[in-house]
Amino acid sequence: VYPGAPPAKCTCDFDGEKFILVCRVVLGTPFVMTQAASKDKPLRRPPANTTTKTPYDSVLGESKAHDSKAALAFREYVVFDRRQVYPEFIVSYHRSKKKQ
After folding, report:
1. Which of 6, 9, 72, 86 is deepest in the core (most CB within 10 A)?
2. What is the dihedral of CA 19, 36, 75, 90, to 10 degrees?
């Protein structure tokens, strides 16, 4: 499950009507990444926490706004268990065109 922070990145479009699914997401203890995972070694599960030896609960892709070393423009969250996500609202809307 891949929730995102900026609404523009999470919008679905269906015949001109746009939808956003607003969810509560339990991240637990996230593994923080400042770079994207490589294509030859994708992240299928969170890595093990070196302190507890158990897997992290989620992955947080950090943004440049929060860490100058980060490569992402926006924060991204990945959870690997759908029970960590609770859909709360479906928001539907139409964008109006700007008048010039």
Report:
1. 72
2. 20
Full 3-state SS string of the chain: CCCECCHHHCCEEECCEEEEEEEEECCCCEEEECCCCCCCCCCCCCCECCCCCCECCEEEECECCCCCCCCECCCEEEECCHHHEEEEEEEEECCCCCCC
Q: Is the pLDDT of residue 1 over 60?
A: no
Q: What is the mean pLDDT of residues 73-83?
A: 86
Cβ-defined contacts of 42-47 (< 8 Å, 24+): 43/78, 45/80, 46/80
The sign of the CA dihedral 64, 38, 47, 88 is: positive
Contacts of 3 (CB under 8 A, 6+ apart): 10, 23, 25, 77, 79, 85
